[in-house]
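A further point concerns the way the authors explain their paired sequence and structure data. For illustration, here is how one protein appears when written out as sequence plus structure tokens:
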Amino acid sequence: MTALSLRQRADPLRPPEAPGLGRSIGFALLVHAVLVFALSAGVQWRTKTLPTFEAELWSAVPQAAAPKEVEPPPPEPDPEPEVKQPPKPPQPSAEERQAERDAEIAITKARDLKKKQDAEAEAERKKKLLLMEQKEQAERERLEQLKQDKLDQKKLDKEKKDKLDKANKDAEAKREAQRQENLRRIQGMAGASGDANATGTALKSSGPSASYGGRIMARIRPNIIYNDNTPGNPVATVEIRVAPDGTIIGKKLTRSSGIPEYDNAVLRAIDKTETLPRDSDGRVPSSMTLDFRPKEVVGG
């Protein structure tokens, strides 16, 4: 089996071989071999060199021999064409050389001028950039200074406010101390029962009497309208501010009785009273604190 048949069998896509192809090829080779053998047998091979003979022929009439063939001389080679040298360029004149030099000088000057202009433009650009940076730095410093000034002003305002608040508190404390002193003095003049070291502000801690406190209570209490049956006897303490002529100009509930209806009834009674009587010396305390009880009996 030949390699061709193997390759053909190895390729499944090739068509199958025709039957008897191998026998046909073998028979053809055999026929060619017989033909070559027959031709070789029919040819006489000569291996010896045949001898050479020379013969001279004589003619009856002498004849002149023909001239020996003379070979013609080889033709002379064609002369090589003369290579013409290219014409030399015409030499420039003095005016042309001067014009070239002037052109080179002008080009050099233009190049130098452009370099100079570029350098000046770059220097100007850097100068503007530096100036811009300086302006931005100055603006940042101005903003920082403005911010610091605002902080300083805010701190100064706070210090001033603290000083003013302290001064107001001190003045208020002084006024309160003076008011308390005046109240103690007036209460002492009005017949308060406390000693010189007492801290209370009521005219009397008991029921009404014939003193100034009793007179004030007798003026206000009839105006209290309260009919509810209250368990116990709670106390409603009210601070009253009075003008020099006895007109009530302010009131404040400093301690509630625990019964809002009774507290409101006491405050309405004070508003209804409007004015308070003068003391025996003709004076009216500027501020006083009174205790009101629902089941307290009015006297005098």
Remarks:
- Helices lie at 3-10, 21-42, 94-190, 212-220, 260-273.
